[in-house]
Amino acid sequence: MAPAITLAAETELSAANTGFMLICSALVMLMTPGLAFFYGGMVRVKSTLNMLMMSFISLGIVTILWVLFGFSLAFGDSQGGIIGWTSDYVGLNGVGNAELWDIYNIPIYVFAVFQLMFAIITPALISGALADRVKFSAWALFITLWVVIVYFPVAHWVWAPSGGWAFDLGVIDFAGGTAVHINAGAAALGVILVIGKRVGFKKDPMRPHSLPLVMLGAGLLWFGWFGFNAGSWLGNDDGVGALMFVNTQVATAAAMLAWLIYEKIRHGAFTTLGAASGAVAGLVAITPSGGAVSPLGAIAVGAIAGVLCAMAVGLKYKFGYDDSLDVVGVHLVGGIVGSLLVGFFASGKGQSEVEGLFYGGGLEQFWKQCAGVGAVLAYSLVVSAILAFALDKTIGMRVSEDDEVAGIDQAEHAETAYDFSGAGGGAARTAAAAPVADTASKKVDA
């Protein structure tokens, strides 16, 4: 994230950077529906709508919390480097149209809405680990508590220019390796350790019901991620945003190929699920590091992340934790890999003059990255587990076993994703289509 300062109202607005950031904000918003499709295709038919809703509800809850006080907690004046607070940001009531944020001269409103989209997608990422078994009401309450207690403080640590401790330490996280992906991945692990496994885990087949939906979701994520990453420099006057854009594409391609090669060697096939998962692993890994590494470095980051994340998704079977859609294996591991590799591949020619070990800079930056990674991982894991435990012991986190087996969509939403009955299918459709087919045939003969 670009170094940011609040500027006086008379400072000249940059129309170019403002327009660019509004577009990037829209791209990041698109990532949450993209994530919903990605996750929705990976679950069984009976859980499709619930999976979509677990992402979509974040758009509602987090938006309101962010405007009321979340932006102030994350980006207000630092209180000891732990949390922020600026009363003018509460409800955004004290923010005027002419007040600008950062050296790139964009309105505070634009920066606030861009960061809002990050706050929305982060808890949505957690939902993939909990597929098939969590009450929707409990999930909504968990999101509400989690963003306030976990996400807002961590975002302040990492990105607040007014004194977040990780920011001041020099931890490099360009667009969310720690604040978004490690944060969400660690939270997912904490929650699933509390709520337990799905009924039939390791026994029943739990294959994706729609790989086309998975690929559609991955494509939307890849597309939106250019706004997620390149936009995090808040402009492109110095070319750093362009570097991040290129590195996003390069690392994602490398990770997808590396995952597929590993998959072919290990399992004997190139799968569409592997291609989609590998692409997401590359996007995750380049998120913290892309502004600090060269395109060649981005290839290395992506390839390493592709292989390590592919290996990591199998750990749930070895250690017995039920991470339904591999949030831990992809987002936690990918975020750790991308964050730590800054300490090796930082070129000194991107967002800062920091050089990693392979560029003669020693291990100083690596240890800073370790501090940021370790703090976010530990805090999110522990607090998320405590929140899940408290909710489970009060309102209950899980649906009943009968509802889980029958299908959480019907139990929680009174709907199903697909309706194969009635006029839309079967004999009725065949009969209706017959005259059309006959007419077309006669035209061809003529």
Task: List the keywords.
446 residues; mainly alpha; Ammonium transporter fold; three-stranded antiparallel beta sheet; two-stranded antiparallel ribbon; 16 helices; 2% strand; disordered N terminus
Descriptive report:
The protein is mostly helical and 446 residues long. It has one domain: Ammonium transporter fold (Orthogonal Bundle). It is 66% helix and 2% strand. The strands form two sheets. A three-stranded antiparallel sheet has the order 1-4-5. Helix 3 (108-126) runs parallel beside helix 6, helix 4 (136-159) runs antiparallel to helix 6 (177-195) and helix 6 (177-195) packs parallel to helix 13. 54% of the residues are buried.
